[in-house]
Amino acid sequence: MAQSPTPGTNPVDGRWAASDAKDWYAKQDWLVGANYVPASASNQIEMWQEDTFNIQEIDKELGWAKGLGMNTMRVFLHDLVWDQDPEGYKARIEQFLTVADKHGIKPMFVLFDSVWDPEPHTGPQREPAAGVHNAGWVQGPGAAALQDEAQRPRLEAYVKGVVGAFANDPRVLAWDVWNEPDNMNAGSYGAKEPKNKWDLVAPLLEDTFKWARSVNPVQPLTSGVWIGEWDKDEKLDNNVQRVQLKNSDIITFHNYAPADDFARKAKYLADNDRPLICTEYMARPTGSTFEAIMPVAKENNIGLFNWGFVQGRAQTHIPWDSWSKPYTEDPKPWFHEVLRNDGTPYIDKEVEFIKSMTAKKPQAAPAARFNAKPPKPSF
């Protein structure tokens, strides 16, 4: 089991010392997984609500992931499901962890998410619009909660409750406290977003880190940067990104670009002197493919979570541009996803490549690897 950092070795804010983060990472196998929602769920609420939670399906699909050599999954939670029934929610998370552990998979749980529909609700979820990428996905907290100070105690209770329940559980890899907190969803729900969203999110994001740390988890906390040219001299685009990098125990990021861009941005983030994990990549038409990215990441021991695993109600095999023009037939190639909903590969050779990459551990890279000039495709 990973241990909490030794008292006195960290800044006052409780962030892990870089040495503790690196010690934790050294105990992990090379982390390879996907952003996971079952094929039958259109969003994280549908995945976790009692009426639609399907542990048999999850067991089957995580078995498929094990067959590819995956050892982790990034899994989104939701505050409204917690509000419905905290004890029931904890029991379902326990079931999930039991099944994941059976397949050798340690999930990274995501607490909040600022992407897609800002008006989440519990109960039956609407049918996703046909031919549209992630047409049912919802934010948490929603726009109303972001703008309502009176809801802070509810959100605090959720964060402390769910992290506290599993704070010492070795089956949990890490906590991603907020996915893309500065996403304004301009191409989808932008008109429904608060215009001052960044100013609302930044202090709540910092509070979320503090709430999660207050229950002393043995797992690291993180929130991944994703937008803008944060790898250049002008540094960070906004106040939200500064909060993310200042508070993260391990550094995470998203990248849907070809290998050269992935390498350039990873090299910049390596200056933080902490383990690196890419928590979203792989969009075939953009050049972010398994074949392009996995060798770079493996040689430099960067963990990887591709977006999507099994084709299903999330519809993320359809591209982002479907929000302006819904697809009437499956795209060629698929945007995301590895497997069809019957478990067969979308591309046989791609699955064989993934298996070949997960079959062996990466070589331990030297501390100065980002300043060296190794052979391509390394940095």
In short:
The protein is α/β, with parallel strands linked by helices and about 375 residues long. The protein has twelve helices and eight strands.
Tell me the structural class: alpha/beta
Number of helices: 12
Biggest sheet descriptor: 8 strands, parallel
Low-confidence parts = 1-12, 370-379
What overall form do the CA principal axes indicate? Answer: globular
Radius of gyration using CA atoms only: 19 Å
User: Biggest sheet: strands side by side, in what order?
Assistant: 5-4-3-2-1-8-7-6
Question: Would you report the number of β strands?
Answer: 8
**Percent of residues in beta strands:** 5-15%
* Terminus-to-terminus distance: 32 Å
**Could you state the order of secondary-structure elements as H and E?**
HEHHEHHEHHEHEHEHEHEH
What is the mean pLDDT?
Answer: 92
Helix coverage percent: 25-40%
Strands, helices and their partners?
Blueprint: H1 18-26, E1 32-35, H2 44-48, H3 55-67, E2 72-76, H4 79-84, H5 86-102, E3 106-113, H6 143-146, H7 152-165, E4 174-179, H8 197-213, E5 221-222, H9 239-247, E6 251-254, H10 259-269, E7 276-281, H11 290-299, E8 303-307, H12 348-358
Parallel strand pairs: 1-2, 1-8, 2-3, 3-4, 4-5, 6-7, 7-8
Description:
The protein is an alpha/beta fold. It is 33% helix and 11% strand. The protein has an eight-stranded parallel β-sheet. Helix 8 links the parallel strand 4 (174-179) and strand 5 (221-222). The chain is globular and about 50 Å long. The two termini are 32 Å apart. The model is unreliable at 1-12 and 370-379 (pLDDT under 50).
